Amino acid sequence: MNNALASKELSFDLLKGLILSPIATGFNLAIMGPPGVGKSTLCQELIKEASKSGLKCLYVITNNPVDLVKQQLRDMGVAPVARNEPVIFVDMYSWLLGEPSPERFQIDNASDVAALSVVISSAAQMAGDRSFVAFDTLSTLLAYNSEELCVRFMKSHLARMKRHGNIGAYAIETGIHSNSFYNEVKASFDGVIELKLEEMDGELRRFIRVYRYRGSHETKWFRLLIGPDHGVKIY
Question: Which of 55, 148, 159, 199 is a good FRET partner for 165, with 20 to 30 A between their CA atoms?
């Protein structure tokens, strides 16, 4: 199955101020930042843009109930059209609640990385080549597995996604893993977007920048605003 992408490049309007050239298929992007900075919202906004471009999307969820995430996407306008679900979900959260997952693709043990790899590969095959993949978040795996094992999974997974021409966004928490793990992330991904929180004038403000990218980009920090409706603006 091939997705309805006219070219091998995708221009995310949301990222145009940061990344100055279209993102090619087979490109994997790490989104790094502290808890609460907006990584999940950014992933969902990218899913919204990818689905509007005709791409099937794969969303691996580890830190929120699937029903909540589906409602957030519906509120953003990502909804089934003619019974065609634009997003395939991999549920890595329901097992934490001790509840059965309603999803076809699910994980009931985050420490079984081999099973996770099989499930995600099966879901990606259903999504088809040149689909958009969001993984929120890779850091959850490190709560149940060693960094060495997670790095091996990450490298193997990224290689498979690249082979099928998928574009991916992978959220990663900062400040909780070792420097060697973050160095592996920065070396493994095609691009790295960093987010941070700073207290200014008595309020916490969000900022975003491109740490590294294989192509034309801006490296300075930009303001990141997330509205009550989860709308995202970068300026």
Answer: 148
